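Hi R.,

Here's the chain you asked about this morning:
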Amino acid sequence: NYTAAQELVLGKKASSARFKFFIQQTVWAPGELKKEIEDNVWYPAQVSKDVILKNRGREGPKMAKPLWTEILELMGGTFLEIKKELYENEGRRWREGGTEGEI
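And here is the predicted structure, written out as tokens:
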């Protein structure tokens, strides 16, 4: 609840760094997600809350590791190759907000 979190922060009962809000959602038709997983569009993973809620702001001059990159690394095996293919293409880097751009 955004309002309750805001009140805690404004009342100095909690730090704003302790909250993350995910604004977007994806909705699938019945059976659509299952098919997309079978087609390797999505890679389900069980991940700890520490990984999900990790602060991903700037680490010095560059951005912290993106969430999906870290999860693919933790999954290991063939997912490391997928990570390299998706995130380590030559001439790409992460910009603020998680968007990619040309160097």
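One quick note: The first helix runs from residue 2 to 10.

Cheers,
M.
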